[in-house]
Fold this sequence. Notes:
By secondary structure, the protein is an alpha/beta fold. The protein has three domains: 12-111, NAD(P)-binding Rossmann-like Domain (Rossmann fold); 193-289 and 384-483, D-Maltodextrin-Binding Protein, domain 2 (3-Layer(aba) Sandwich); 293-373, D-Maltodextrin-Binding Protein, domain 2 (3-Layer(aba) Sandwich), CATH 3.40.190. The chain is 37% helix and 23% strand. The longest helix has 20 residues, at 147-166. It is elongated and about 105 Å long.
Amino acid sequence: MLPISLRPNGRRAVVVGAGNVAARKVEALLAAGYPIFVVAPAISPRLELLVGERKITCARRGYDAADLGDAALAIAATNDRDLNGRVVSDARARRVLVCDASDGARGDFTIPATQRIGSLTINVDSGGAAPGFAARVAREVAQYLGREYGEAVANLGRIRAYVKEHFAAEERGAILEALSEKPVNELAAMNPTTLVCATRRSSLAMIQSRSVAARLAQRGIATTMLEITTHGDAHRDRPIDQLGETNVFVKELERALRDERADYAVHSCKDLPSTLADGISLCAVGAREDPRDAFCSERYPSFEALPPGAVIGTSSPRRREQLAALRPNLRFESIRGNVDTRLRKLAEGDFDAIVLAMAGLKRLGVAARHTIPFPPDVLVPAVGQGALAITIRAADTWLGEIIASVVNDAPTQLCVECERAALRALQAGCSAPIGVHAAREGGIMRVALAVARTGSILRQTAEEPVDTLAQAQALGRRIAQQAA
């Protein structure tokens, strides 16, 4: 037996018979939304009431095979077994699904006992062996589950519609599965409010923001995207350090928060200033993707294989200064644009090599023919590189707690807070020629720092046990003091 649910879609059901059994079938079909036609020589008072209320139509006469002409379903519910058998035969001849109330095995389907809790329908089917007992079980199950199950189903239906509209098919399964496993009381109490996320318009930024939205969706929280063109995005023809402003990828997103056009913003953590603007709070740091920088070339297999005079494209003073210290015989030229644009310029031969963040390449699923990560102690990454940062209005502590519970990755947060503390101690911005990278294993945090100064690179390392944010920040300040 295969349990399925059928939608009426305007098609009628024909019930042959008008006794108590027929009445129960009619009531079940009415609850499912079927238009119903009853045919029988006499109609019971129970069905007469429905006829009087114009909920069903009927013919007070004997059954004729033509009664099944436009039926989607047929129910044979008379006291005459032979007549029921004829209804089954006629329905089969017309490819109409039929139920024989006198012999469940003879028809195509049976109608289970049904109870509804809001949007939740509970069906109990005994295969026709004990319909009264099936009805009892359905009632008891409904009483046991309670109203919150119906509310949970309604909320799941709302968030499922949102997920289907906003996420690709391959993303939906994990979101909906995680939602379905949440405690029923949480599902029933899900807040229907839709949050707004401020994000840059680039493909990488959208992937990052959608990953946060997907995590929130697993908690039943819907998000719409407010796509913003930042100052840095609008002036891609000039190096970042020549734009005349700091925080060129952040200010417009912060403004959207302050103006209450957005509830939270998702950033590449390396774009954040060491000290956030007044009224803005960093509420969560997402799990870190590969933090390393990558050598990318279509012609040369490695950084070491580049010939003297080869041209490397990078718009980062940090990368340029550290790489120039390693290979002073190379030329460095500015390159702007999103990852795809930079890879296209590389493929067209504008550069012998470029340097990109491994995190962005992995999140986009792209690479050059030769893509080789630099060890983080050779080319020290930017503060927060590879991690996502979620900011909110500082006053919205309730929202910060929700986002942190869903998105924050505690090990990544420790490392990023160490790096950001070092940057603050050095009184430097996110585009300064400074690299700080912290990694933690077995409770021990190791920090590498590289600062470009007058043609040379000052490097420092430190290693200490770290278990708390205060310890991580203190370690960041100490390594910065060593470089001062």
